[in-house]
Amino acid sequence: MTPAAIAERLGDTAVLARISRSFSDDAEMVSQPGRVVPAAVLVPIVSHPEEPSVLLTLRSPRLSSHAGQVSFPGGRMEPGETPEAAAVREAAEEVGLDPRLPELIGRLPEHLTGTGYHVTPVVALLPAPLVLTPDPAEVAEAFELPLSTVLDPAAPERRSGEFRGRRREFWVWPHERHYIWGATAAILVNLARVLRG
Predict the structure, then answer these.
(1) Which sign does the torsion angle of CA 181, 66, 79, 92 carry?
(2) pTM reported for the whole predicted model
(3) Whole-angstrom Cα distance, residue 104 to residue 44?
(4) If you write DSSP's letter for every residue of the chain in order, what string do you get?
(5) How confident is the model at residue 197 (pLDDT cuts 50, 70, 90)?
């Protein structure tokens, strides 16, 4: 899929309208006032000539929350900040991405996590090759998932497990070294739905 085709899909309001906001299975715990935190993530598609890929990070094992999990660069929005500004700022802080590089092409449906984050995924195209300098306090590794995997309808698996005393279902994406699940996996599912139309 070419960068132009990716940008066209992200601009298709009819396709986006068919994909609703997504929720974690334990999102009802954040229905209390004051519990929801606005956040944004950058969903970076690296425009490799041979095959585009999606840039992901493995969070540092030393972090107090979501340690060692796969995520997109992102975090809390600051007061008065747009999701786009927050996503680009966080990517610069976490992986050393030059803020001038992302070509912002759209948003995916919002995602409400069970940990109380209302996440706006911002999709951007990035030129290849990338030179990144991850902050070791936040990111253990930056790696890429081929876009062909994201576009494969058979790739994501629906799994279930016990969490906080109840059964929950979640998406998992295949990767040879990392376990991609939770909000990151759900956002990738929405990206796949948009790109496949």
Answers:
(1) negative
(2) 0.89
(3) 9
(4) --HHHHHHHHT-HHHHHHS--EE-TTGGGG-STT--EEEEEEEEEEE-SS--EEEEEEEPTT-SSSTT-EE-SEEEPPTT--HHHHHHHHHHHHH---TTS-EEEEEPPPEE-TTSEEEEEEEEEEESS------TTTEEEEEEEEHHHHH-TTS-EEEEEEETTEEEEEEEE--SS--EEHHHHHHHHHHHHHHH-
(5) confident
Tens of pLDDT, residue by residue over 133-151, are 998 888 989 999 999 999 9
- Spell out the domains of the chain, with CATH numbers in brackets: 3-147+166-196 (3.90.79.10)
Mean pLDDT of 13-29: 63
